[in-house]
Amino acid sequence: MAASTIKIENLHVEIEGSEIIKDFNLEINTGEVHAIMGPNGTGKSTLASAIMGHPKYEITQGSVHLDGENVLEMDVDERAKAGMFLAMQYPSEISGVTNADFMRSAINARREEGDEISLMKFIRKMDEKMDTLEMDQSFSQRYLNEGFSGGEKKRNEILQLMMLEPRFAILDEIDSGLDIDALKVVSKGVNDMRNPEFGCLIITHYQRLLNYIKPDKVHVMMQGRIVKSGGAELAERLEAEGYDWIKDELGIENEQVGDQQQEA
């Protein structure tokens, strides 16, 4: 399969009349892992939700293209079928739908009629991925995220990622609330996905996740846009020194705008 590219240009996003994302630009190719870091309220989670089509967010300007196709003209399910995936910061619970049924339906929804995954192939694949994530097999028959701890929900999001095998994944604070052991397991799942046909955007506050998932590029987001980019060493400096040196460098006094409701 040929390499794919997702290209975000001059993106502006509003919520309830307040502009959160301003002139955001980013290009990611399959085979690459990018990380976005930044203070609370700078718009990181808004970016993820807007790209995937959450109706709460209004895109007022700019474009998002996946291999030349206008993502913003697609319905949410069409974005998923095109190969996009979002691991949410706060996964939803769905009573009455088992993990296994949900994931098999999601896989088949992306396939052509008549090419659905067989039950045995699905079970073998799910068992293999659950073993990688050190998840008890009973999770396959539990209702989706119902009664799961925060860490279990995060592992389940990565299980979905591994089962669906999208072209591009946005991982929104998958390290939030994880202890070090769970963080290592979740990171292992993401690293198992790395290949020339998979691209990833990681949104995180902390460098510790990037100790386990080594990014190709790190971007700093402030006031709704990327203000600095670099390699993995940039994340290490942010962990050691915080963001004030970037604010001083760019003449940014305070982080005033953002989606505090989304980024607690």
UniProtKB/TrEMBL annotation:
Keyword Kinase on entry: no
Keywords linked to the UniProt accession: ATP-binding, Nucleotide-binding
Domain ABC transporter, first and last residues per copy: 6-248
InterPro entries: AAA+_ATPase (IPR003593), ABC_transporter-like_ATP-bd (IPR003439), ABC_transporter-like_CS (IPR017871), FeS-cluster_ATPase_SufC (IPR010230), P-loop_NTPase (IPR027417)
CDD domains for the chain: ABC_FeS_Assembly
Domain of life (superkingdom): Bacteria
Keyword hit for Nucleotide-binding: yes
MF term (GO), any: ATP binding
Family: Belongs to the ABC transporter superfamily. Ycf16 family.
Name the record gives this protein: Iron-regulated ABC transporter ATPase subunit SufC
Organism, as annotated: Alteribacillus persepolensis
